[in-house]
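Allow me, if you will, to draw on your knowledge of protein folds for a short while. I have a record of one protein: its chain in single-letter code and its fold written as discrete structure tokens. Could you please explain, in whatever detail you think fit, how the structure tokens follow from the sequence? The record follows directly beneath this note:
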Amino acid sequence: MFQEPISTQPVIEAERFVLRPLRRSDAGLIALYSSDKRVAVGTRAIPHPLPPGTTESYIARAMSGSTREDVWALDGSAHGLAEVLGVISLERLDDDQSEIGFWLGAGFWNAGFASEAVQAIVAANPHNARTLFAEVFQDNPGSARVLSNADFEYLGDAESWSLARGSHVATWTYLRKMS
């Protein structure tokens, strides 16, 4: 019998879902949502079209425990919602800092799920970070509002590579100092 590795990531409660570590069974929904071009172009790392095996590799890396990034699924199944609404991650940076990233399936946009997930991560602060950073593409003001709603402060403009777009994209960078 094959058993999945035990995760050391905490499960984080939000009002309408829990943030839980990824599991192999999430592959179908993550692939469905992330293969949507509207989702992929809002991220740095999701390619479009989504090559076979990409989602399974992503989940295997997230579950390996050997990366600097922790990834959680937004699991709404206990509240009558989908088992995966999207994902949120924290990547450990130097000097007690982490970078937050998130995306939702397009069918869950504009329902407050991203704001709720970011606020839950900030409240839990599972990396015990003293500073959280985030970066959003400038053509995605909704994600900027999510960060502003969680008391992130605008730092400045930059640019980042988008795999799905195959180009550099103008970004807004944010930071949140933790107490």
In short: Residues 12-127 form a domain with the Aminopeptidase fold (CATH 3.40.630.30). The chain has a mean pLDDT of 95.
